[in-house]
C-alpha cells in the first residue's frame, strides 16, 4: 500500500516538473504564448526571440516571434540563412488593413535601397495586394509569414493562406529587415527577436 502511494507521489511530482520545464521553454509575451518549435517546409524551427511593438511608444500593437532552423543573434547571420524561417505576429488591439499595410510597406522601404527594391518590384506589388485583401483585424488575430526555399514567402491570416508565395530570398530578406534592418520598426524589439 505504502509502495503504491510512493509511486503515485513520484509520478505526480515528475509530471509537475515536466510541466514546469515545458512551460519554461516556451515564451510568453504580453499574454501571447509562442511555441518553442514549429515545422515549416518540413524542417523544425526554433523560437529565436519574441517581443512587442508599440506605436508612438505608447500603445502595444502586436507581439511577434521569429523562428529559425538554429539560433542566431545578429541580423547578418539571420539574413545569410538560406533555410526556412517564420515570423508570427499576434495583434494586441484591433487594426485596420490600411494602417497595417502602410506600416509593412514603410518598413520595407526604409530598410531596402533603390537597387535592392528594383529586384523585387513584383513581389512588393503582390504583398500590397495581400494587405489590401485583408479586412480589419481584431485583437488576437494571427499573421504568420513563412519563407520556404524554392517556394517563397507565404502569408497566412488566422490560418488562411492569402495570395500566392512571393518568390526569392532577396524579398524574404527585405521582409525580415522590417524588424532586423538598420532602421527597424523598433530597435528594442529587434534585439528581442535576436534573443539579445
Automatic annotation (TrEMBL):
Residues 26-195 form the Chalcone isomerase domain. Coiled coil: none annotated. It comes from the Bacteria. Residues 1-26 form the signal peptide. Keywords: Lipoprotein, Membrane, Signal, Transmembrane. The keyword rRNA-binding does not apply. One of its GO terms (molecular function) is intramolecular lyase activity. This is Lipoprotein transmembrane. It comes from Noviherbaspirillum autotrophicum.
Amino acid at each position: 500500500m505504502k509502495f503504491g502511494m510512493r509511486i503515485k507521489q513520484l509520478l505526480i511530482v515528475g509530471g509537475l516538473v515536466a510541466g514546469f520545464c515545458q512551460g519554461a521553454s516556451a515564451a510568453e509575451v504580453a499574454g501571447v504564448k509562442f511555441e518553442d518549435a514549429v515545422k515549416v517546409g518540413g524542417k523544425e524551427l526554433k523560437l529565436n526571440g519574441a517581443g512587442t511593438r508599440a506605436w508612438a511608444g505608447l500603445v502595444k500593437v502586436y507581439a511577434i516571434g521569429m523562428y529559425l532552423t538554429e539560433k542566431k543573434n545578429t541580423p547578418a547571420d539571420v539574413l545569410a540563412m538560406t533555410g526556412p524561417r517564420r515570423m508570427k505576429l499576434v495583434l494586441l488591439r484591433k487594426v485596420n488593413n490600411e494602417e497595417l499595410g502602410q506600416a509593412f510597406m514603410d518598413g520595407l522601404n526604409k530598410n531596402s535601397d533603390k537597387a535592392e527594391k528594383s529586384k523585387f518590384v513584383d513581389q512588393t506589388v503582390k504583398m500590397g495586394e495581400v494587405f489590401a485583401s485583408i479586412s480589419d483585424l481584431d485583437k488576437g488575430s494571427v499573421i504568420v509569414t513563412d519563407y520556404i526555399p524554392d517556394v517563397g514567402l507565404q502569408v497566412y491570416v488566422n490560418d488562411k493562406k492569402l495570395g500566392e508565395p512571393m518568390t526569392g530570398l532577396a524579398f524574404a530578406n527585405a521582409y525580415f529587415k522590417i524588424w532586423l534592418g538598420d532602421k527597424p520598426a523598433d530597435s528594442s524589439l529587434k534585439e528581442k527577436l535576436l534573443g539579445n
